[in-house]
Design a protein that fits this description.
By secondary structure, the protein is mostly helical. The chain has nine helices and no strands. Helix 5 packs antiparallel against helix 9 and helix 6 packs across helix 8. The protein is elongated, with a radius of gyration of 20 Å. The termini are far apart. InterPro entries: Homeodomain-like_sf (IPR009057), HTH-type_TetR-like_transc_reg (IPR050109), HTH_TetR (IPR001647), Rv0078-like_C (IPR049484). This is TetR family transcriptional regulator.
Length: 203
């Protein structure tokens, strides 16, 4: 029981730090967020942050993983009511790019994340997105709706296109102007995978 309680306390501490970090990084940005203020706000010490995450960048990685995971869930939810797998793929990509307008996502995942954690395509949180896209591509190809392209390559290119479009929107001084251009380009790109010469969308 003592070991279980200790584990629960460690999980509670991590959760408090992630919540505090998420708030601080969203409001102030990673560079400006103070570790002392962040930990004090959570009722914890710097030592707790170092013990659980190693350093401030480790906490950012945990916060990015949480927010990026929520992005994927929200994008996938947008595809649930789509009338077909193909249209669901379009809806998911569109929703992912649209999330670049969310101030919290914009600051934490699309601006500070790449600046301090490196290439987003290498983040562990992107693996779930890639797996979901891979499944959709495999299903569409099995139904004869896509060209016989390599599934892994197609999934990585589609995810990369949506991710880079979101990064472009987030970094733009006029994101609302860039957004429809990015969505239109992604839709055209995806249409290139369709089987047949016409490129018409499947029913």
């Amino acid at each position: 029981m003592a070991a279980k309680r200790r584990t629960e306390m460690m999980e509670e501490t991590r959760a408090k730090l992630i919540t505090a970090g998420r708030k601080a990084f969203a409001e102030q940005g990673f560079a400006e967020a103070s570790m002392d203020e962040l930990t004090a706000g959570a009722g914890l010490t710097r030592g707790a942050l170092y013990h659980n995450f190693g350093d401030k960048k480790g906490l950012l990685a945990a916060v990015v993983a949480q927010v990026d995971g929520e992005m994927a869930q929200r994008a996938q939810a947008a595809a649930v009511d789509a009338p077909s797998v193909w249209q669901g793929l379009i809806a998911e990509g569109t929703a992912y790019i649209q999330l670049a307008l969310d101030p919290e996502i914009q600051r934490i995942v699309l601006l500070d994340g790449p600046a301090f954690l490196g290439d987003p395509s290498q983040w562990p949180s992107q693996n779930a997105c890639l797996a979901a896209t891979r499944q959709k591509i495999a299903l569409l190809q099995a139904e004869g709706l896509l060209k016989p392209v390599d599934i892994e390559a197609a999934a990585r290119l589609i995810n990369g296109a949506a991710l880079n479009a979101a990064l472009w929107v987030a970094a733009s001084p006029q994101p609302e102007v860039i957004l429809p251009k990015a969505i239109e380009a992604l839709t055209c790109l995806l249409s290139g995978f369709l089987a047949g010469r016409s490129g018409a969308e499947p029913e």
